[in-house]
Amino acid sequence: MDILTFSAPIPLDGRHRAEELRRQQATQAKGEQVFLNTLSVSFVNYYLCCMGFETDLNKSDSWNAIHQTLMDVADLSLKNLGLLECRPVLEDAQFVYVSPEVQSNRIGYVAVQISKSFREAKLLGFVKQVKIDLLPINQLQPLDSLLEYLEELSQSQLAEIADNSLDCNQNLVNLKQWLENIFEAGWQEIETLLRTQGVNPAWSLRSGGGTFISRGKLINLGKLLSDAYGGLRQRAVVLVVTLPQGNEQEMDIIVEVHPTNGQHYLPPNLHLMVLDFEGASVMEAQTRSSNKNIQLEFSCEVGEHFSVKLALEDISITENFIIC
Description:
Elements: E1 6-9, H1 12-23, H2 28-50, H3 65-70, E2 75-78, E3 82-90, E4 95-97, E5 108-114, E6 120-127, E7 134-136, H4 143-171, E8 172-174, H5 175-178, H6 190-194, H7 201-207, E9 212-225, E10 232-244, E11 250-259, E12 271-275, E13 281-286, E14 294-301, E15 305-312, E16 315-322
Parallel strand pairs: 3-5, 8-16
Antiparallel strand pairs: 1-6, 2-3, 4-7, 5-6, 9-10, 10-11, 11-14, 12-13, 12-15, 15-16
Helix pairs in contact: 1-2
């Protein structure tokens, strides 16, 4: 039975990169190692791109001059899948050498036979895992199995992304719907939560007395040892979100934290953070010993989403919002 292989010239830019990295090495032996590793990665990258897989050479350690110098590495980063190790072998070799430092954190290992002219290469096969330094070439699986394996990983990754997106959308608070008096569960009128009347003075000042919408949510921050009786009681605060009652492309937003009914001050060292869509903090406020409330003000455009995070000691709660 014929075993599927793939032979072709090594891309010219890959050969130039391999020669460039070889010249940067301190010894001839290290230079040859880096040269072959780079040729192998370039060839596998060319093959997988032809097969429709997305790769990213710049995220591969093998494409980094410092990493190539410090390690024996021939990895190729595949978008959303992981690192595929591309190990070079010379003609007539019976084994593929896999350095111990790359025998983990890989989705698979491909054997790449480099011609004596260093201008052509052949893909011999692959394995999913390696636990020995010298892998017999006759134990490699054929290339069609590699393509099937990568396709399965791609489908699994797409399904996982879809599931995560569904979960994320289900947990998003859509502030645009508040303008239509549609509120998610748990978001209540401020008077109900704080047992108080009136509006936020800061908001009245900014909006010039215009109409606005506020809703609050009770946030549980864990249990606190009671000083009086030595028992445990819940630590809770009220998160308040306020926005103008309009349909502008850009929307001013105020997020506040208040103590619950019956408490005069917020817990000290309570952090209020606004996170961007990547989860990075873009602004933050922190309570001292006797804060009655803290707040942050910012603007968002329609279509943007952000998060509000409350953190106290080892407890953190995040609420996710979108305007659409």
